[in-house]
Write a structure and sequence with these properties.
By secondary structure, this protein is of the alpha+beta class. The protein has a single domain, classed as Cyclophilin (Beta Barrel), CATH 2.40.100. The protein is built from 7 helices and 12 strands. The strands form 3 sheets. Strands 4-5-10-8-11-3-2-12 form an 8-stranded antiparallel β-sheet. It has a two-stranded parallel ribbon with strand order 1-6. Strands 7-9 form a two-stranded antiparallel ribbon.
Length: about 250
């Protein structure tokens, strides 16, 4: 279970939801600019885009990032061929060997599952505890590494029981092609909110995921992050990183 260590007024998430859900056309309004997230580590730099289709998660991450919340936090849980996870406020300046992963802010984000947003390599998704509504942690997130899966391997992933009586959302044929070539973690689809994508620096995920780690999957050598936000024209993002906006 996640515990509260970083205090933020509960009214924040209520006001955020009210503003976004009462005027979705404004929240999802097409713009010529978007926010480019730069996530820097000693293993290299990744650039991320957050999705307009998950407005609550996008607004929350941007608020935390702009306030410097993520600076100095660790990727405290890494599993090769699966994902790298960070955002625990308890991880900042944590002593070696200390168990991490229970830190949080004092609110959760309602799930924003969308069938077109899936756990391909580089997907940015929200961690969560076992709450029945599958609400997301207000701060912890993970980035998918995964691996290419073909034939029986993919089918086994899609047939997995997730422990709560549910099974993964079944991907489209186009999504299956991505899982078979680029890779990902298809068994998480429809159970954790995907709200962003790494558009540059996928090799950094590989570097972090392969680090030596303890029996709690914490890297033996800390991997701290610095996160910054810059608003940029979409055409410039496409030109620099090849990402195509819808």
């Amino acid at each position: 279970m996640l515990t509260t260590t970083y205090k933020m007024p509960r009214v924040f998430v209520v006001l955020l939801m009210t503003a976004l859900l009462s005027s979705p056309t404004q929240a999802q309004k097409k713009s010529r600019k978007d926010h480019l997230i730069t996530l820097s580590t000693e293993a290299g730099t990744m650039h991320l885009i957050l999705f307009d289709e998950t407005p609550l998660h996008k607004a929350n991450f941007l608020k935390l990032a702009k306030n410097g919340f993520y600076d100095g936090l660790l990727f405290h849980r890494v599993i090769e061929n699966f994902m790298i996870q960070g955002g625990d406020p308890n991880s900042k300046n944590a002593e070696p060997g200390v168990a991490l992963g229970n830190g949080s802010v004092d609110y959760k984000i309602p799930a924003e599952f969308r069938p077109d947003l899936f756990h391909r390599k580089g997907a940015v998704a929200a961690a969560r505890d076992g709450n029945p509504k599958k609400e997301s942690s207000g701060c912890q997130f993970y980035i998918v590494q995964g691996r290419p899966m073909r034939g029986e391997d993919l089918e086994k992933q899609l047939a997995r029981n997730l422990g709560d009586g549910t099974r993964p959302r079944q991907p489209t044929e186009a999504q299956k092609e991505v899982y078979q070539t680029l890779g990902g973690t298809p068994h998480l689809d429809g159970n954790y909110t995907v709200f962003g994508q790494v558009i540059d620096g996928l090799a950094v995920i590989d570097s972090i995921a392969t680090r030596l780690r303890d029996d709690r999957d914490r890297p033996l050598k800390d991997v701290a992050m610095q996160v910054s936000v810059k608003k940029m024209r979409k055409k410039k993002i496409t030109r620099k990183y090849g990402y195509q906006f819808e």
